[in-house]
Write a structure and sequence with these properties.
GO molecular function, one term: alpha-amylase activity
Distance between the termini: 47 Å
Keywords: Glycosidase, Hydrolase
Strand order of the largest sheet: 11-10-9-5-2-1-13-12
Family: Belongs to the glycosyl hydrolase 13 family.
Shape: globular
Largest sheet: 8 strands, parallel
InterPro entries: GH, GH13_cat_dom, Glyco_hydro_b, O16G_dom_2
GO biological process, one term: oligosaccharide catabolic process
Helix content: 10-25%
Number of helices: 15
CATH superfamily of the largest domain: Glycosidases
Number of strands: 21
CATH topology of the largest domain: TIM Barrel
Length: 559
């Protein structure tokens, strides 16, 4: 039976800083719920499932792009910022969605793609006509080298040169992603003014915030060659050693100092609408440093997230290193953490936890215990594994380009399973745009709702519990050294001090417990560590949370 949202003793952020410590549920509209039987999810489908989202005890939703688009990159190539693509519905549908979400206590954030547009946007169609039209400098244009080669060696994230030749202007234009996604020129003041007006349009329609796609790509640097990278490593957005994008240090093509000035103007606009927020997606060689720089001082973005926890690395040593470095660098900034999204292999597969309830609950508590806000990607609460698709089923241009070394992002974008015994798992009456894997049907919402011990109900229970714990929502954090593959941290807020212990090993671990540590009586029963007689015992992949005296400074976990 559908559960209703838990509102008792709710201590989550209210008012203007609701975003601080908030849990944001990411919806990929194409794959969430199809209301009209065309095989593609839509805004009315999201409205139909708002009660389900509210029952998770999250604070907000984030809608991936639904704007008018030729869909070469499935909505991240926008041809009109101010309208809804007909496949998703209408502006009136969006307005109803905002109203219905707010009625359920859910904030609404939307994707804003600012660094580039579609090549079918009216701005680009005008810009490419000549070198002297009113929008001639709205995109990044450059002359070829004397031998006709591209201006620089910059690479596209999706493979090949980041420069595309245009015969109308006899110049190259920059595209950090697909050739059909030309980069806007944020060094042109009129472009900055125009983009801020696009943001204002949605603020006036009542949105509560923006997820800013590839926000550090907005401003390019000098047209100089990027230096080579000495060691080719995996990067963001599935950039792997088989993609030449990873062969360079990205010194000139993104993350330029001038971008900070744009972010300050954007923040000033958001501040005109109290209670709104922003979270920037950062893909950079030094992503943690950029996260800190972009969110510090209260005059740029409210928070940022990166791909540092969206890799294959699930060992507690790496996680501890990433989190402690972030805390050391972020100062008064604010991070946002995610373990999954629409660009990476699903968590259950990536961290080798498919079908393992104890592991999946461990990863959930790990994420929801960190200092910062959290994004949960649809299906994560069900433990969905990555969908295995054939080459013929792929639609993602990145997967098609780099097959078979990289299969693209389609495997994490398949439709949300609602009903195990229904055709296409209750997502649509028609054949969906991507198939619903058989392995997902048994994990459908209707099956997990009937099982008190399911992962879905674990998410509901822990998120309801988290709402009653100010230390987990807003508290400071301190990390203890990793021992025996156990990651320990403490969260403190006012007079409350909570200790969180996470066993990433498949062995039972026993260790001394800080004096006065007491299990929380109102915590979910599967927080299954035992605090007893000065000892903590954690089963394999076990989790424990205890309350300790605030004044105590116990260093026993630090050695």
């Amino acid at each position: 039976m559908m559960q209703t949202p838990s509102t008792s003793h709710y201590v989550g952020s209210q008012g203007a800083d609701w975003w601080r410590g908030a849990v944001i549920y990411q919806i990929y509209p194409r794959s969430f719920m199809d209301s009209n039987g065309d095989g593609i999810g839509d805004l009315k489908g999201v409205i139909d499932k708002l009660d389900y989202i509210a029952s998770l005890n999250v604070d907000a939703i984030w809608l991936s792009p639904f704007f008018t688009s030729p869909m070469k990159d499935f909505g991240y190539d926008i041809s009109s910022y101010r309208d809804v693509d007909p496949m998703f519905g209408t502006l009136e549908d969006f307005d109803r969605l905002v109203e219905a979400a707010h009625a359920r206590g859910l904030k609404v954030t939307i994707d804003q793609v600012m660094s580039h547009t579609s090549d079918q946007h009216a701005w680009f169609e005008e810009s490419r006509q000549s070198r002297d039209n009113p929008k001639a400098d709205w995109y990044v244009w450059a002359d070829p080298k004397p031998d006709g080669a591209p201006p620089t060696n910059w690479q596209s994230v999706f493979g090949g040169s980041a420069w595309q030749w245009d015969t109308r202007r006899c110049q190259y234009y920059l595209h950090n992603f697909l050739a059909s996604q030309p980069d806007l020129n944020f060094r042109t003041p009129a472009v900055v003014d125009a983009m801020l007006e696009e943001v204002r349009f949605w603020l006036e329609r009542g949105v509560d915030g923006f997820r800013l796609d590839a926000v550090n790509f907005c401003t390019h640097g000098e047209l100089k060659d990027n230096p080579p990278r000495q060691e080719i490593i995996e990067s963001f957005l599935g950039v792997r050693p088989d993609n030449p994008y990873g062969y360079q240090l990205h010194q000139y093509d993104k993350t330029q100092p001038e971008n900070l000035l744009f972010l300050e103007r954007l923040r000033a606009l958001l501040d005109e609408y109290p209670g709104t927020t922003s979270v920037g997606e950062v893909g950079d060689d030094d992503a943690l440093g950029v996260m800190a720089e972009y969110s510090q001082g209260g005059k740029r973005l409210h928070m940022c997230y990166s791909f540092n926890l969206l890799t294959d690395k699930a060992d507690p040593g790496y996680l501890h290193e990433t989190l402690t470095e972030m805390e050391a660098r972020i100062g008064d900034g604010w991070p946002c953490w995610a373990l999954g999204n629409h660009d990476v292999t699903r968590l259950a597969t990536r961290w080798q936890a498919q079908g393992q309830l104890d592991k999946l609950r461990l990863y959930m508590v790990f994420l929801l215990s960190q200092r910062g806000s959290v994004c949960l990607y649809q299906g994560e609460e069900l433990g969905l594994p990555e969908a295995e698709l054939t080459f013929e089923q792929l639609v993602d241009p990145a997967g098609i380009t780099f097959w078979p070394a990289y299969k693209g992002r389609d495997g994490c974008r398949t439709p949300h399973p609602w009903q195990a015994d229904s055709r296409h798992a209750g997502f649509s009456r028609a054949t969906p745009w991507l198939p619903v894997p058989e392995a997902h049907a048994s994990l459908a919402v209707d099956q997990q709702e009937q099982d008190a011990d399911s992962l879905l109900n674990a998410y509901r229970a822990f998120l309801a519990f988290r709402r009653t714990q100010p230390a987990l929502v807003k508290g400071d954090v301190r990390y203890h050294p990793v021992r025996d593959e156990v990651l320990c941290l403490e969260r403190t807020y006012q007079q409350t001090r909570l200790l969180v212990a996470l066993n990433f090993s498949d062995q039972t671990v026993t260790r001394p417990a800080p004096e006065g540590a007491e299990a929380l009586g109102d915590a979910p029963k599967w927080l299954n560590g035992e605090w007893q007689a000065g000892t903590l015992t954690l089963p394999p992949f076990g989790v424990a949370i205890a309350r300790c005296p605030q004044a105590q400074e116990d260093a026993s976990w630090d050695v």
